[in-house]
Write a structure and sequence with these properties.
The protein is an alpha/beta fold and 417 residues long. It has two domains: 194 residues, 3-Layer(aba) Sandwich (D-Maltodextrin-Binding Protein, domain 2), CATH 3.40.190.10; 211 residues, Periplasmic binding protein-like II (D-Maltodextrin-Binding Protein, domain 2). Helix 8 packs across helix 17, helix 11 packs across helix 17 and helix 11 crosses helix 18.
């Protein structure tokens, strides 16, 4: 063998080895969603790896309650994964501000998301995005179609029709009108106040006005939802004060209640547990012909560890998360977690189809307390929990609840002072 032939062979071998090494990348994803591990392993990751040979992906979730602490410890130690699953708003913003999440504003896939979709993972001024939106959850009401058929009820579209249906269910006595308890508090605010509220404060219009200090929590659009909640206690069944969230889920799926104030995240579990047909309706409007508003809440996204050694591969994965293929895979593997992208995603689950159809009929907003307004003490999100419970139980008037929350917000938030 001549020296030239030997050197050429050596160079070719080195280039091939270098090419293989460059392609041999393994990405690790941190997440709190340990309940969907099988979906990632069986559907999402194989689809990505098939389209991107040479990039392997490991999905390594933590228990939800432990995720924030575990992730922060890993980030501080430099041992966190390449991709970070992002909770909405302040928790992820704090990671970006601390230098843990990379600025991905210019990522190609970000063009597929609206400003509202990106709002959960943007700086306050909207100039920088640090996570690719994955999914939202939509609020409304799930109902037992058998119960409605038994009682000859139509799906309510206005508040008057809603309370007429509740009265009819209560009068019949065969079903609890609505399954919701106040023991765990958060449901009263999440599936109560922030479910029906956008119809009063006109979604994003009111939410942004509250942030800007142009509206206050004592204004009619913010007190009125409490007036509706004050009526709910009559329809929640005996002992609702001690009823937990799992209790409410069981009461509904066992067929004992006709209506469940809901988030779309219930769909998979209810499909598995209920042996009756279910339907869903959006929060009824105040009067026929009114524009309807829904809480289409930004829930989960994916960002890049600013210190990853696999930035190119991580960006490849993030761009894929912005693709129509991922949107369809994720939304149908987890019915009730809806794509936030601009792609047209066909839903296979009938109940999920119903929820997502409201986007075409109603204006979308997000939970009023999640962006900016819960950074101080007292925390507006937590205060909205106990205010919603107090109003439902009759321990506080709607006006007093609004005044108390406004005083708390104004005590630390300059635009409200």
């Amino acid at each position: 063998m001549t020296r030239m032939t030997f050197m050429g062979g050596l160079l070719a071998s080195t280039l091939l080895a270098g090419t293989a090494l460059a392609q041999d990348v393994t990405l690790t994803i941190e997440s709190w969603r340990n309940d969907d591990l099988a979906i990632w392993q069986d559907s999402i990751i194989p689809a990505f790896e098939a389209a991107n040979p040479g990039i392997k992906v490991n999905f390594t979730p933590s228990a939800p309650a432990e995720y924030n602490a575990a992730l922060n410890a890993k980030l501080d130690a430099g041992s966190a994964g390449d991709l970070i699953t992002c909770r909405p708003f302040d928790a992820s913003l704090a990671l970006y501000d601390a230098g843990h999440l990379a600025d991905i504003t210019d990522l190609e896939g970000m063009a597929n998301f609206s400003d509202v979709a990106k709002s959960g993972w943007s700086t306050d001024d909207g100039a920088v995005q640090f996570c690719v939106p994955m999914a939202s959850v939509i609020h409304g009401f799930i109902y037992n179609k058998d119960a409605f058929a038994d009682l000859g009820l139509s799906v309510p579209t206005t508040e008057a029709e809603f309370f007429a249906a509740l009265d009819a269910i209560k009068a019949d006595g065969g079903y609890i009108p609505m399954a919701m308890g106040t023991n765990d508090q958060w449901e009263a605010a999440t599936m109560g106040y922030n479910n029906i509220g956008p119809n009063y404060w006109k979604g994003e219009e009111g939410r942004l006005a509250l942030i800007a200090g142009e509206q206050s929590l004592t204004d009619e659009p913010w007190v009125a939802p409490y007036r509706q909640l004050a009526k709910w206690g009559d329809y929640l069944g005996d002992g609702y004060e001690a009823q937990t969230y799992p209790d409410s889920q069981n009461i509904f799926t066992l067929g004992r209640a006709a209506i469940y104030p809901a988030g779309s995240w219930e769909i998979s579990g209810f499909n598995a547990q209920a042996d009756f047909e279910m339907g869903a309706f959006p929060p009824p409007v105040q009067a026929a012909g009114d524009t309807c508003y829904i809480s289409d809440h930004t829930d989960i996204a994916l960002g890049m560890n600013a210190k990853t050694e696999n930035a190119d591969a991580a960006k490849t994965f993030l761009n894929w998360v912005g693709s129509p293929e991922f949107a369809s895979l994720y939304a149908n593997a987890l019915p009730g977690f809806f794509s936030l992208s601009s792609h047209d995603v066909a839903m296979e689950d009938p109940l999920a189809q119903e929820f997502v159809s409201w986007r075409g009929k109603c204006e979308s907003s997000i939970r009023s307390t999640y962006q900016i307004l819960s950074r101080g003490t007292p925390n507006l999100e937590n205060e909205t929990w106990n205010a919603s419970v107090a109003v439902i139980k009759g321990d506080e008037t709607p006006e007093a609840a609004g005044a108390r929350l406004q005083d708390g917000l104004a005590s630390w938030y300059a635009p409200q002072q």
